[in-house]
């Protein structure tokens, strides 16, 4: 495993021969943390993103995990969501539900999608406000922990992806949302990647998580990955840290342009 540094924090990386090994390792990583947090506090708070990541999560559907994971203790959130109806093809909720969540026994009440009315109306501001309120309620119920003295929500694990432009969640290069340090959840109405209306966790919330796993595959992302590992902070993904561990899982194609010394 190799590591570089963001501020005072390490940015670790593991390069896998292919997507298959990457998804196996991601399943193992997630299952191990689930066991740790379920034992320590009786809950596992897992934050998902959209994109390719969801198909790699299907490893967790294998019998070994189906039988051993304490699914009833899982609580599922989204690091970002497109403000479209929940049954729309662009919805991150729908992607995760169809590909993963509908196939494991996580209680429906533990799956926190964005507000359905705001989603149907395309009300990004309202959706962000209500999602933030939802997080605060779960902090009050001690389902989500808080980060040290800041009071920011602290998730156990976030599984993230990066676009070829270096965006993570719905924090895009050159857009002001990356600088938002006041809110837990913010919104964008002119996303450069369609659909335009989205909500997203802000960077402080993303970086408060105990563990952040960024999974990136394919050559299309290789330039952005190389920029991140050369500390090009114009790319939102270069800012990713975590309380305990921020780790990048890359396939060989995505890692192919990282200079040797990184
Ligand atoms: O639009 C989005 O894109 C990113 C990256 O997706 P990928 O398919 O390039 O991995 C994703 O992480 C985010 O959740 C999603 O809304």
UniProtKB/TrEMBL annotation:
<feature type="domain" description="Glucosamine/galactosamine-6-phosphate isomerase">
    <location>
        <begin position="18"/>
        <end position="248"/>
    </location>
</feature>
<keyword id="KW-0378">Hydrolase</keyword>
<dbReference type="GO" id="GO:0005975">
    <property type="term" value="P:carbohydrate metabolic process"/>
</dbReference>
<dbReference type="InterPro" id="IPR006148">
    <property type="entry name" value="Glc/Gal-6P_isomerase"/>
</dbReference>
<dbReference type="InterPro" id="IPR037171">
    <property type="entry name" value="NagB/RpiA_transferase-like"/>
</dbReference>
<dbReference type="GO" id="GO:0017057">
    <property type="term" value="F:6-phosphogluconolactonase activity"/>
</dbReference>
<dbReference type="InterPro" id="IPR005900">
    <property type="entry name" value="6-phosphogluconolactonase_DevB"/>
</dbReference>
<dbReference type="GO" id="GO:0006098">
    <property type="term" value="P:pentose-phosphate shunt"/>
</dbReference>
<comment type="pathway">
    <text>Carbohydrate degradation; pentose phosphate pathway; D-ribulose 5-phosphate from D-glucose 6-phosphate (oxidative stage): step 2/3.</text>
</comment>
<dbReference type="InterPro" id="IPR039104">
    <property type="entry name" value="6PGL"/>
</dbReference>
<comment type="similarity">
    <text>Belongs to the glucosamine/galactosamine-6-phosphate isomerase family. 6-phosphogluconolactonase subfamily.</text>
</comment>
<dbReference type="GO" id="GO:0005737">
    <property type="term" value="C:cytoplasm"/>
</dbReference>
<dbReference type="Pfam" id="PF01182">
    <property type="entry name" value="Glucosamine_iso"/>
</dbReference>
<protein>
    <recommendedName>
        <fullName>Probable 6-phosphogluconolactonase</fullName>
        <ecNumber>3.1.1.31</ecNumber>
    </recommendedName>
</protein>
């Amino acid at each position: 495993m190799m590591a570089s540094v963001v501020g005072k924090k390490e940015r670790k990386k593991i390069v896998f021969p292919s997507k298959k090994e990457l998804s196996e390792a991601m399943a193992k990583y997630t299952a191990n943390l689930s066991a740790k947090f379920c034992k320590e506090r009786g809950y596992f708070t897992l934050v998902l993103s959209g994109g390719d990541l969801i198909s790699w999560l299907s490893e967790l559907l294998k019998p070994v995990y189906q039988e051993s994971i304490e699914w009833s203790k899982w609580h599922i959130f989204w690091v970002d969501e497109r403000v479209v109806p929940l049954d729309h093809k662009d919805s991150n909720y729908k992607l995760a539900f169809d590909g993963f969540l509908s196939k494991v026994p996580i209680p429906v009440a533990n799956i926190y999608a964005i507000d359905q009315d705001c989603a149907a109306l395309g009300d990004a501001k309202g959706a962000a406000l209500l999602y933030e309120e939802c997080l605060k309620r779960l902090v009050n119920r001690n389902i989500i922990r808080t980060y040290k003295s800041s009071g920011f929500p602290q998730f156990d694990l976030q599984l993230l992806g990066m676009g070829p432009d270096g965006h993570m969640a719905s924090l895009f290069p050159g857009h002001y949302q990356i600088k938002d340090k006041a809110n837990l959840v913010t919104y964008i109405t002119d996303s450069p990647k369609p659909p335009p209306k989205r909500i997203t966790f802000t960077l402080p919330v993303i970086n408060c998580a105990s563990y952040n796993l960024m999974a990136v595959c394919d050559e299309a992302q290789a330039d952005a990955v190389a920029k991140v590992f050369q500390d090009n902070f114009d790319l939102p993904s270069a800012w990713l840290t975590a309380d305990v561990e921020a780790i990048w899982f890359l396939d060989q194609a995505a890692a192919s342009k990282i200079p040797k010394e990184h």
